[in-house]
Amino acid sequence: MFKKILVGIDGSAKGDKALEMAIGLAKESGAEIHLVHVIPWPNLPNVFPPGAIAYVPESVIQDLTNELKAKAEKTLKERLLKVEEAGVSGKIKVLEGEPASAIVNYAQEEGVELIVVGNRGISGVKELLLGSVSHKVSQLARCPVLIVK
Fold first, then answer.
1. What is the biggest distance separating any 2 CA atoms in the chain, rounded to whole angstroms?
2. Burial of 54 (0-12, 13-18, 19+ CB in 10 A)
3. Sheet holding 145-148: strands in order across?
4. What is the Cα–Cα distance from 5 to 112, expressed in whole angstroms?
């Protein structure tokens, strides 16, 4: 059925549940799993106060970006071990940008047939104002999206 499945990995328990679901689907269909983590650049939420980034030296921004990439790669490699232990082939990719758009663009470029993401549980007014990555992915994607609660 599916040959390529993308799983959005953010290091959360919800993301791990999405990965478990994707592994089960991949085993049934013989699919390859693409594990993707997105560094939300240039907005870097919760790192700098609004407007402060204009006053941060380029070297500090580069160091922070390198640190975030290293942490993301470590997280993805840990999840890739779970994929491989289940007898499924996989690959990892760290992306930068707005998370939903980066996930959807990667999926299109790689010919992904299913996107699996966890639901972080944002609801009500908060989701209306901020949106959620899973909701945005489901609206932008050109392939099926499975949102795991």
1. 51
2. exposed
3. 90-96, 32-39, 4-8, 114-118, 145-148
4. 6
Tokens of 105: 């663009």
Is the previous residue joined to 45 through a cis bond, with omega within 30 degrees of 0?
no
CA distance 116 to 47: 27
Domain 4-148 has CATH 3.40.50.1000: no
E-assigned strand segments in 17-108: 32-39, 90-96
User: Residue 119 burial (CB < 10 Å; 0-12/13-18/19+)?
Assistant: middle
Residue range 44-54, pLDDT digits in tens: 545 556 665 55
Q: pLDDT (tens digit, 9 = 90+) per residue, 23-35?
A: 999 999 999 999 9
Q: Say how far apart CA 47 and CA 44 lie, in whole Å.
A: 6
Q: Could you state, in order of their start, the residue ranges of all structural domains in the chain?
A: 4-148
